[in-house]
Amino acid sequence: MAYTKISEQEILHWLQENLNAERYIHSLGTAECAVELAEKFGQDREKAHIAGLLHDAAKCFSKEKLREIIDKNLTVEESEMLNYKTLHAPVSAYIAEKDFGVTDSEILSAIRWHTLGKIDMTDFEKIIFIADKIEPNTRDEKYREEMLEILNGENGLNMALLRCYKETIKSLAKRELKICLTTINIYNSLLDMKNVSDI
User: Fold this and answer.
1) Total Cβ atoms within 10 A of residue 120
2) Does residue 142 contact residue 33 with C-beta atoms inside 8 Å?
3) Which of 60, 150, 169, 181 is the most exposed, fewest CB within 10 Å of its CB?
4) Ranges in the chain, pLDDT < 70
């Protein structure tokens, strides 16, 4: 593969060895959905495929292993450490670069930010973020259909992203989990964008 140092079959074998069955199927679905969205929004299909496959590479690592890799190799904001369920994102980007030889900065960034997101994401980063939420293999079919309809509308990527953040915030609040300030800031920026486009 052009963006990795090993073949797709080797990547799939690694994922099968390091992910549980559901997460493996989810990764295949995310790659498939990412390619579809890349075609729709004029992005690189192969890059989207690789980012989709590898976005959850570290998802099944233990909390201890994630923290060990972060402590030794990465710089992660304190606010990101509030919820260990998002720690696999920076570690997955690290694995993609270290173990699979990915050097493309956009692929690595899309993997890095596919859980929390960030202000002013590129269209490619938005595609990977959204594909993770609406892939066909493990995600809710009704939600996926609603999101695809939003994506077909005006300013589709941003409006779909806004919908994702609404759902995330509601879910975190319902479970009484802490909400990272980054999440709030991104939601507010997307809401500002929507309000401007409504004028």
Assistant:
1) 7
2) no
3) 181
4) 1, 195-199
d(CA 92, CA 158): 25
Per-residue pLDDT at 199: 37
CB contact set of 66 (below 8 Å; sequence gap of 6+)? 58, 84, 87, 88, 91
At how many degrees (to 10) do helices 8-18 and 45-54 cross? 20
Whether domain 8-140 has CATH 3.40.50.1820: no
Torsion over CA: 92, 98, 104, 109 (sign): positive
Determine contact, residues 91/58, Cβ cutoff 8 Å: yes
- How confident is the model over 133-167, as pLDDT tens digits? 999 999 999 999 999 999 999 999 999 999 999 99
Q: Is 140 helix (H, G, I), strand (E, B) or coil?
A: coil
Reduce the DSSP state of residue 167 to 3 states and report it.
Answer: helix
Q: Where are the domains of the chain?
A: 8-140
